[in-house]
Design brief:
The structure is a single chain. The chain is mainly α. It is built from 14 helices and no strands. α1 runs antiparallel to α3.
Length: 323
């Protein structure tokens, strides 16, 4: 793919691409900040309009749309909110299509985009904490408490729950809050990874409509780089330490790697399913099992880890090689 790809657009189409990208991303990101439930979903989609602008209007249009959206968010909330938008949705919406158009594979583009957004978000978070005169940990605790309070209000509105049930729920949420606070950096990184992944899916559809041959690889080929297994092993043994200075970073590393190895395990399962004549039915069944049986999640993660040695996706027969 050429590194100078620019769509041929007239002034009207260029302006339309800029407006759609700026308005779409700005509104979706604003909803994620202002609307409790709908906004949760909107936040994961906020970078996709910028991907659309990059493919239909070009690089300059996408940059202009990101800057306009950041300005609108900053005016609607506060200046740092606009900066927060730019280092999250802006970077993802600009970098992901740009790297793909420059010939990078989808997995590498996803990795580098998420890494850039994570670093940018961390810098803005430290800046916000310094400006507000608060510690970053206190700000994270405030965010988690806000989310838990919103969830608790939903439980309180339900009929049939006794005061004892509500007290049990409160105690459970307090335990969850403590755990979430310790792995908050990992959760923030995974949140950005999910935003990037959703944007990648959208980008794949857009590229297919425009006939662009980008480096998209099937999910069943996903593999975690082999050296990361040593980080997993080291982090696991580090949990035996008694000091939070060691166990807290270890928990964050484990949380990140657990998700990556779950994706590898899921890729193994999908590969095995696609070798059967009942692919569609088994994929639907797998989806329901993952939603209804949470104990499958760690089992699939373990499968992903052992795929490093078992190579379960290697064709065993001549017939499998042709699939």
């Amino acid at each position: 793919m050429s590194t100078t790809f620019q769509p041929r657009t007239g002034a009207g189409q260029y302006l339309r691409a800029v407006l759609l990208g700026a308005a779409g991303s700005g509104v979706l990101f604003s909803a994620s900040m202002a609307v409790p439930l709908i906004g949760f979903v909107a936040g994961f989609l906020a970078a996709t309009p910028l991907c659309y602008t990059r493919l239909t209007g070009g690089r300059r249009a996408a940059v202009l749309a990101a800057l306009i959206a950041a300005l609108l968010v900053g005016l609607g909330f506060k200046p740092l909110a606009g900066l927060w938008f730019f280092v999250q949705c802006g970077l993802i919406g600009l970098l992901l299509p740009e790297l793909m158009l420059r010939g990078m594979t989808s997995s590498r583009a996803l990795l580098w985009t998420t890494a850039a957004a994570t670093v940018g978000t961390a810098l803005v978070a430290f800046s916000m904490a310094a400006t507000a005169g608060q510690e970053l940990l206190a700000m994270a605790q405030q965010e988690i408490s806000t989310g838990m309070n919103q969830a608790l209000r939903l439980y309180e509105q339900q009929q049939g729950l006794s005061p004892e049930d509500l007290e049990t729920i409160k105690q459970g949420m307090q335990t969850i809050s403590t755990t979430l606070l310790r792995i908050f950096p990992a959760l923030a990184s995974l949140n950005l990874l999910l935003v990037s992944a959703i944007s990648l899916l959208f980008l794949q559809r857009m590229a297919a409509k425009q006939g662009l041959a980008l480096g998209f690889a099937p999910f069943r080929t996903f593999r975690v780089p082999e050296p990361l297994i040593w980080f997993l092993i080291t982090a696991g043994f580090s949990l035996l330490a008694k000091t939070p200075l060691v166990t807290t970073p270890a928990m964050n590393i484990l949380a990140l790697l657990a998700v990556l190895y779950f994706c590898q395990g899921l890729a193994v399962v999908i590969t095995l399913i696609e070798r059967t004549p009942y692919t569609g039915i088994l994929k639907v069944l797998l989806t329901f099992l993952l939603l209804l049986q949470p104990y499958l999640l760690p089992l699939i993660s373990i499968l992903g880890i052992f795929d490093l040695w078992g190579e379960f996706r290697t064709p065993r027969t001549k017939q499998e090689e042709n699939l």
